[in-house]
């Protein structure tokens, strides 16, 4: 049996790719080392931010805009709530470039935003104690996605459309001979005309030259109350502080407010080093100073989870071909901000599998940007 395409890693991007490729009548095999959704990759922890004003650069806007359409479609097709339009409030010191960058992005791409002074933020959300030398921007159409639920729906829809799925079965080797890819797993070898590697933090094990660094990150849930809930219009948020540290969080659900730190973390050599929450001394306390100053009223840390980022050298996505004939594709290095774009990335992967031209759309993300002169 020769598949049209094998997808190695069926987490956020791979699940979307498998679903869209199958819907497009390709003969697809999705493989994963675990059973997605799961807690051994980058997609667990319930929620992920979806923002439209994007300081990370214009290259992301086509992906964000296409993802918006695809997220809406997935919600409808699956009859599942996957997105909450809570708005995302970003705050930063007046002298930092972040808020002007977000406003410029919003203006260029017609994103609905509202610029807010510290006083206006405190008036609107009296629980947010923002100092006078800060300001912010509310990304009005933005909000947060339910990450595991979304992966679950793509996997289910793909399976219902007849996609072959091999889970709890790591890929140990990939070879390319005679215009075919041979994929080795504990379950045996599988062959396809094309391959898509979406193995997240561990893609480097299969593509050793990939310049990515897996980093352990933690998320923590704090005892909260209705004032911080989406029912009372408390927003999702990002916060950049004077010392450059960055935090983000979500409206409380069931009186549990999730907050995490975006910068920092522990570089990983292997998945086994990604210790459970609580096993690194700073896990439970890394957000305390932020919470104490900006969101006083949170009390005990209830629980947490550990997850991994797959950081590229410049923090931007990596999407590139694996061979000169363009029959292999890798999508990795999503660097802690890729979930929102997973539908668009999965669709690009499916277009690749269909033999359509994707050079233009992937050109800002190709590896050649790291080549030294
Ligand atoms: C704590 C945290 C917070 C984040 N917050 C946000 C956010 O707010 N907004 C946002 O947009 N993004 C966010 N991200 C980033 C986003 O979650 C990731 O960019 C995205 O989930 C990565 O998708 P992926 O498909 O590359 O990886 P994954 O979803 O991890 O999928 C990779 C899959 O490959 C499988 N795999 C690995 N190796 C093998 C192998 N050898 N054989 C078979 N299968 C294999 C894994 O089991 C896994 O299922 C966050 C990430 C983390 C960790």
Topology:
Elements: E1 2-8, H1 12-23, E2 28-31, E3 47-50, H2 61-78, E4 83-84, E5 88-93, H3 98-108, E6 113-117, H4 118-124, E7 134-139, E8 143-146, H5 147-160, E9 164-166, E10 171-177, E11 180-185, E12 188-197, E13 213-223, E14 236-240, E15 246-249, E16 256-261, E17 266-267, H6 288-294, E18 301-311, E19 318-321, E20 328-332, H7 342-353, H8 359-362
Parallel strand pairs: 1-2, 1-12, 2-9, 5-14, 12-20
Antiparallel strand pairs: 3-8, 4-8, 5-7, 6-7, 10-11, 11-12, 13-16, 13-17, 13-18, 14-15, 15-16, 19-20
Helix pairs in contact: 1-5, 1-7, 2-7
The structure holds flavin-adenine dinucleotide (FAD).
The site of flavin-adenine dinucleotide has 40 residues, from α1, β3, β13 and β18.
Architecture overview:
The chain has eight helices and 20 strands. The chain has helices at 12-23, 61-78, 98-108, 118-124, 147-160, 288-294, 342-353, 359-362; strands spanning 2-8, 28-31, 47-50, 83-84, 88-93, 113-117, 134-139, 143-146, 164-166, 171-177, 180-185, 188-197, 213-223, 236-240, 246-249, 256-261, 266-267, 301-311, 318-321, 328-332. By secondary structure, it is of the alpha+beta class. The mean pLDDT is 96. It is globular and about 65 Å long. 23% of the residues lie in helices and 30% in strands. Strand 14 (236-240) and strand 15 (246-249) form a beta hairpin. It folds into two domains: 2-45 and 148-211 and 314-370, FAD/NAD(P)-binding domain; 86-142 and 213-311, D-Amino Acid Oxidase, Chain A, domain 2 (2-Layer Sandwich). The strands form three sheets. Strands 5, 6, 7, 13, 14, 15, 16, 17 and 18 form a nine-stranded mixed beta sheet that branches. Strands 1, 2, 9, 10, 11, 12, 19 and 20 form an eight-stranded mixed beta sheet that branches. Helix 1 (12-23) runs parallel beside helix 5, helix 1 packs across helix 7 (342-353) and helix 2 crosses helix 7. Flavin-adenine dinucleotide binds next to helix 1, strand 3, strand 13 and strand 18.
